[in-house]
Amino acid sequence: MSALLAKASRQGFLQAKTSISSQGACISTGRRFSRKKIALAVAGGVLGVGSVGVGMALLRPANAQELILHPPHYRWDFKGYFAAYDKASVRRGYQVYKQVCAACHTMEALCYRHLVDVCYSEREAKREAEEAMVWDGPNDAGQMFQRPGKLSDPFPKPYDNVEAAKAANNGAYPPDLGHVVLAREEAESYIFALLTGYCDPPAGYELADGMAYNPYFAGGAISMAQALYNEIIEYEDGTPATQSQLAKDVVTFLSWASDPDLEQRKKFGIKAGVVLFLMTPVAFYYKRFKFHTLYTQQIFWKKGK
Amino acid sequence: MFSRKNKWVKFLNNSVWDYKVPININNWWYFGSLLGLMLVCQIISGFFLSTHYVAHVDYAFDSIVHINRDVNYGALIRGFHINGASMFFFFMYIHIGRGIYYGCYRQAGVWYTGIVLMLLLMATSFLGYVLPWGQMSYWASVVITSLLSTIPYIGPSLVEWIWGGYAVGQATLTRFYSLHFILPFIMVIVVIIHVGLLHETGSSNPLGLYDPSGVGMRSFHPLYSCNDLFFCLVAMGYLIKLSAFHTWAFVPCENWIKADPMTTPKHITPEWYFLWVYTILRSAPTKGGGVALMVLSILVLAILPLVPMTHWQGGTQFSPVGKMLFALWVSNWLIMTWVGSQPATWPFMEETVYSTVIYFAFFPVFLLNLALKASKFQLDRSLYYKLWILILYVSIMITIFYNLPESIKWTIEDFLAN
Ligand code: HEM
Fold this sequence. Notes:
Chain A: This is Cytochrome c1, heme protein, mitochondrial-like. The complex is a heterodimer. Chain A is mainly alpha-helical. Chain A contains 9 helices and 4 strands. Chain A is extended, with a radius of gyration of 33 Å.
């Protein structure tokens, strides 16, 4: 090994005339600076970074090209390291979805079984599924038939196909709500703001027939009419069904639907975090322990005779 | 059988257990092991994903949804794979920066295999990004593959050959999946060569000293093995934090919408780790020029091992000017990453030109600084190498000039005319 190294080093630095101490002195340029110089350098750096920051901050408004209202950032109670979905809210949100949104929107990836042990017991979910009539078949006679839904059935679709959905909605397709929270830039807060943000268009704004105005929607004109009003449905648990309550519940439900695994992952993260929290300091101590002879040794190089 | 007399045991022993490491290496030297860790992580999480993924244009997106919803810990494994890819790049960029700062590129073989690894990583993650078949996956694959159509003469047929048809479709998806599966294993082989070449000469160190006597060396075990264990735990902790709590942080919202060849997403932006290349691509007014610059931006790293050999083996660490140049280059790189994420408007599009020029101008200035710093010139690289630098730089300069905005070009022409 050392023979190889010697070959590779060509010049053999250790035999060179320069002494190691002068190399050492070069290592930190800052050490030889006077206090004044350091203060000047720091001030210069702060000023430089600060002016770049100010410049960037000033650029921002100049760059507001799209006329779109960004939603406020609401504090969702399922955000945070130790937070889970509020299951009562998910259950109410499912009710809102079923009674309001499902008239136009699909949730293709969701089945009734997904609700089990989340916001419904198995018996309740079965009863829920049975309310829907599902096409099945063919039977022994080769006929298609209708039967009450089962746990393994997906949520029913409001329209037979995309064209039918478009035809019924001013030519706009109501997007699938299965992942809609993850599929929008400002996620939960955007959908909450969208559902509660309907208002009259500003003066001079031409709204096409059958369109509604919503400042949070890109362009302002949306094909979905306002869906949520105070007391539009009655909650089975007696919660007052104000518009914002309905919106919050349905958004909680949609968030759960987008990312049902969230709680399982957080639980894993917490468990792994505890284990790592115990292991890492031990590993750190062990490494320092192994290194301590090295850290405390001094090497001198002397000129050969 | 496991005695140290056995040929293979001896080889393993010499290259891992008793491998001699300089005692003065600092924390920037541990990112190499972390990169190895990430490669293993990606292969393991990728293997589990592949057991549920379906490479079919009609089912790929749904199979990803299925992994998220119905597979036990499926979303977590996806989280490991997605965030692991990002961490892989993060570590790799630090690893390369370390090499430039401390002059590690002098070990030419190691440096060149490193560049191959970087290209393989870029290819692998691009191919993997296409697999979920969301809007961003699809459009990224369309945009990137059609860049190849700018290659003169063979370009258009090359693109169709890669697509396996007249558009990105089923054939493209399946071959991308096969390639995405195989490339990491090719990376494993290149990593072995990379490390093997390193062990021929031994690791470099922050002082740039060669130590043929071996007084400044220790065996890898138990010092560096313990150190690596600690750093691997920290890295794993960070990966777990990202995957468990911020799982989708790097997934653009468009990718939660199934690929639709009929609608272009509003903003097509690459992953953060490609933004700097994207800036270089966008700095050119013509597509072909951008592609040429993009290729050169990686090839240009290959000229660093041509630094003049002197009695002094360090990099920039003892040269204040070199440090400043390096800091400028790194800041420029960060700015490029930021500018790449911004919309294609004023002032960002104008800025890309300056960033690209600074990016390329760094290398010759950097080498010149090191050459002047050396007390004694000993250009022991062959003429062949010098020619290669010359050709590379002339082509960069021509490409940049060819791509400068008209106004700047006129100013330069005026200046030259007077
Ligand atoms: C160098 C190592 C690797 C890197 C950098 C890498 C990177 C990526 C990236 C960026 C994605 C897209 C993630 C997303 O948006 O969902 C992906 C997806 C995927 N990768 Fe890898 N990968 C690596 C190794 C592997 C290996 C070895 C396998 C198989 C054995 C694999 C199988 C998959 C599969 C099945 C997907 C699609 C599933 C999904 O998107 O979640 N990967 N990879």
